[in-house]
Amino acid sequence: MRNNDFEFKMTLPFMTPILDDIEQRSLSPLSSLREYENYWMVEFDLPMVGSENINVIFNQNTITVEAKLKETYSEEKLGKITKFEYFKKSVSLPGKIDSKKITSKFEKGRLEIKIPKKIDGTSIKIN
Amino acid sequence: MSFLLPTSVEENLMNITKPDPQENTLLVGFPSNGLVGTFSISYLIHHLKMKYVGEIDVKDLPAALFVEEGKILGPIRVYNKKNIFIVISEVPFNQYLAEGFAYAAHKFCQKNGIKKIIIVSGMGSINQSKETLKLYGLVTDQILENILYNNEIPKFLEGNIFGVDAAIISVFRKLKIPVLILYAECHPFFPDPEASIIAIETLAKILDVQIETQDIQNRMDKLRIQYRNLMEETIRTLQHNQEQGTRAPQIYR
Predict the structure, then answer these.
(1) ipTM rounded to 2 decimals
(2) Contact at 8 Å (CB) between A12 and B235?
(3) Does residue A43 contact residue A32 with C-beta atoms inside 8 Å?
(4) Which end is more exposed in chain B, N or C (fewer Cβ atoms within 10 Å of the end residue's Cβ)?
(5) How far apart, in whole angstroms, are the C-alpha atoms of residue B227 and residue B184?
(6) A57 - beta bridge partners?
(7) Which residues of A touch B225 (CB under 8 A)?
(8) Dist CA B175 CA B171 (whole Å)
(9) End-to-end distance of chain B based on CA atoms, in angstroms?
């Protein structure tokens, strides 16, 4: 057995700060962006969500995920209760992408979006 | 669950001293992959109704205090019940702080006659097996091999350990205090209470205590939301470690 994926051998992803919107009652989900040779992998942590309530919008190089929670999530701080009903977050991709070949899957409350890179250029002849 | 101890180690087990289950044991948890250590150790404190007995001070720890029911608490706290001691950190460590933490924990062990340490951590795996999450054990001293064997914990046989875990294990190895590290396979970047349940169940077997995991199972989704900030902060600390630290060379095979 080789525990190849262990801890710091993998490149840590780009994580964006968590900014909940109290007025819009939306939580900012944790997300990670990892770069591979031919694609980007964007992952969102969406607990308390069913796949039928997830909406993914792709615009230019930005992916926005909106998801309705199965039940209202409440947080209490200093006696004040704040209620949330949605997850919402946008993630910008740093490179050109092939939007026609994007695939996604939702498992254990985690949404994975695989975004192929757009590879254009000319090959160079080697003498 | 398959048992992966190589034959040679199984043979050696016949000759080693069995650890005394009643001797003082220290459990250690701190924020790392999947927040496995944080979830499982907190759960144990709560469910075993352990008593808060003090705090551990580590030099250069960022200023942070926690208030619980009007009581001010430091970030690294100590709990006790019978022969079980727990040290839990609420803040993630960088490599430098991790070493300071390990030395402080060792001093605590010396003062309290603690003979073995169990660390609970997460093994970040992107390709987690879909159905069954796994837990692996690693020991720094042969005397603890029996714990792996008796509890059918597969041994972490090959791989690399970097950063905070490596810093802590290195200090304990140097100071020659036996350590068992339980690595639960988990999501590397998101809180993973599901992986923590495996760690809790394994700890319950090792410590020979009854721990019902239904409560954490019911709250798994809410915990993932609740602990977003700590997870983000932990990843940021790990990233900082990675940028600053040197990488060990790969061993050619």
Answers:
(1) 0.81
(2) yes
(3) yes
(4) C
(5) 18
(6) A64
(7) 27, 47-48, 73
(8) 6
(9) 28
Decide if A72 is inside a domain: yes
For residue B134, the chain A residue with the least C-alpha distance is A3
- Nearest residue of chain A to residue B194 (CA atoms): A108
In terms of residues, how long is chain B? 253
Asked if A36 and A117 count as a contact pair (C-beta separation under 8 A), the reply is no
Q: Scan residues 18-37 of B and list those with Cβ closer than 8 Å to A.
A: 33
pLDDT tens sequence across A9-47: 344 555 566 778 888 889 999 999 998 989 999 999 999
Q: What is the DSSP pairing of strand A103-107 with strand A110-116?
A: antiparallel
In the predicted model, is pLDDT for residue B142 greater than 70?
A: yes
CATH code (residue A55)? 2.60.40.790
Of 3.40.50.10900, 3.40.50.2300, 3.40.50.1980, 3.50.30.10, the CATH number of B27-240 is 3.40.50.10900
R_g of chain B computed on alpha carbons: 17
Which domain range does residue A88 map to? 25-116
Give domain status of residue A102, yes or no: yes
Pick from B74, B88, B80, B140: nearest CA to B112: B80
- pLDDT per residue over B167-201, tens digit each? 999 999 999 999 999 999 999 899 999 999 999 99
* B188 to A45: CB separation less than 8 angstroms, yes or no: no
The alpha carbon of residue B49 and the mean position of all alpha carbons in its chain are separated, in whole angstroms, by: 19
CB contact under 8 A, A48 and B222: yes
Chain A partners within 8 Å of B93 (Cβ) = none
Q: Under a CB-based contact definition with an 8 Å cutoff, are residues A12 and B239 in contact? A: yes
- The widest CA-to-CA distance across chain A, in whole angstroms, is 74
